[in-house]
Amino acid sequence: MKAWADMYRLSLCDVLVTSPWSTFGYIAQGIGGLEPWMLNIPKPKNCVAPLEPACSRAVSLEPCFHCPPSYDMKAKVVVDPEVGLGPPVVHCEDVSWGLKLVNDRKI
To answer: Which GO terms describe its cellular component (predicted)?
Structure first.
């Protein structure tokens, strides 16, 4: 119950900054209808200098689907889920293999 209260409180913010893979951030942005700012965290190999800019704006308020299906059971082949789904589906900002819905006017 405390976790739900925290996510709800986050959704009431005017500005939301989330870290990659943040479940609390995804829930809060969905409830509040917010397009969050995402922290740009450097990869471990590139930790020499901080990334510029430190944050970037997410392309939509939709959460990232981290584990989209990649196997077509009918055709029995591995597929890229983004191919053939059209402009409303793009790869996530924080997870290169994840998918999210966007308003096609923003891409």
So the answer is: Golgi cisterna membrane
pLDDT digits (tens, 9 = 90+) for 42-67: 766 656 666 677 788 888 888 888 77
Query: Going by C-beta distance under 8 Å and a sequence separation of 6 or more, which residues neighbour residue 93?
Result: 20, 38, 56, 58, 59, 64
Helix (H, G, I), strand (E, B) or coil at 20: coil
Report the SS3 class of residue 71.
Answer: strand
**DSSP annotation of 52:** S
Q: What is the pTM of this model?
A: 0.64
Separation CA 74–CA 55 (nearest Å) = 41
Cα angle at 50 between 62 and 13, to 5 degrees?
A: 35
